[in-house]
What does this fold into?
Amino acid sequence: MDKNKRRANILFLMADQYRWDALGLLNSRVKTPNLDKLASDGILFTNAVCNSPMCVPSRYSMMTGLYPSQCGVRHNTQMCPTDDDMVIKTLAQRMYQLGYQTAGIGKTHWYIIQPGDKKAEVKTSTRGFEIEVGGRKNTGFEKAGSNTEYMYDELPEVFEVFKKEHKNYRIGGENAEGYIGCTSEIPPEKQKEGWFTKKAIDFLENRRDPDRPFFLYLSFDFPHAGLNVPKGYEQLYNLEDFRVPVLETEQAQLTDHYVQPKNVKEWRRWREEFSEEDKKRTIMRYYALCTYVDDMFGKVINKLKETGEYDNTFIIFTSDHGDMLGERNRFSKYSLYEGSVRVPVIISGACIDNGLKASKDDRCAELADVLPTLIQVGGGVRDERLAGYSLLEQQCRTGSFSELHGSGYQEVERPPAYMWRKKDWKLILYIPGYFKNLDMRLDEVKGELYYIKGDPLELNNLYDKAEYLKLREKMTRELLMHMAVAWSRFPRMYSYTGLK
It folds into this structure.
């Protein structure tokens, strides 16, 4: 990057539960012209994974540059309820220290408290965002010294329609009814995504500090269930173009040990109680929401072009995890299989060498790489304690890592599962059961080994096949040493000699 040029602005586009392959340039069934154009002006990373396949730990990991077990948030019912509980500076705090004007619009998911839940007292700052815009104020926590704007304070009537449309959904929309979804009565511009888009455009037009580059984080809930699609977007698709994934063998249906009975019940209800047309509509509505997300992102990107800022703005797009979308007879995330753990990553615009534009990078990338990448764009120095590496540099690892500690919704916590993924192969290790007497059961380690290049749905577990023993042991050693290296970096003790 030429240091004589004005530092690049940063636009961070984030979607929730967005599959790695839900892009028009990879999947002809989905319409995403704006994200496709973004990739043509930049680099698409085709082997990127999240570091935990569920919302809260994945976002904490991405925003700290640490793995979930390093930052202390390992599943969906953990959080850092005060700023003192944060073990390291967040991405927004680092960008602010580098001289950026920081704005966070949309979903951060720092907190797990539901309205009326008084079990935890949460008092935090905005963790680096000077301007913050959210959907709904949760009772039970406050942000000290902030004047965060909330959509449903401004549009309470929309919240009433939202509640009506979600009344038969489980929290997070993760039941059969939520997967089926509906055509929403809330118009596109008054959906949360539309309102956040309006606020992002207002920031670019009216709230910019002309003396500083900006860091704008724009984060959407969709295409996370419930699949309630704004009017007009389903009409872009033909229902007959979609098919319901069919699983070849019942044995391969639910092999991972983190599947919760309530999720299995809802997945089976979806298959057994709804018509084939309804099930096709689930798949179609998911992609229609991807198109809606793409449309909203496109409005912000077009505003950058109108204001003359596009050529000096570095843009990154990603998601916190994927969605199984019916593969292996399941939905949502909570597994280390491809549909759940892989994420789209596009970097585009300023700071991308012209020779790399419209290219695909097949390196083993992770969401932990987002923070080091943006620090480099902002002119900062790499923090050697972090788990990730800048995507603007050369390949720095031989595989990618993800960890799963249960969803947190179980009454008894399960032992962790770890994934080591290379371009063609994936290893998963875990101990079944629960934490009780765990140290006495280390010889009970189970594993899954998949040739993902030839078996993308991971239906053929090769872990116990004698001919793959050497590969299995090699990948196990790599996984263990990768974990050891990461944990030796952070938390890290400093010696009396002053060496770092």
Remarks:
- Residues 322 and 340 are 4 Å apart (CA to CA).
- Residues 276-306 form the longest helix (31 residues).
- The two ends are 27 Å apart (CA to CA).
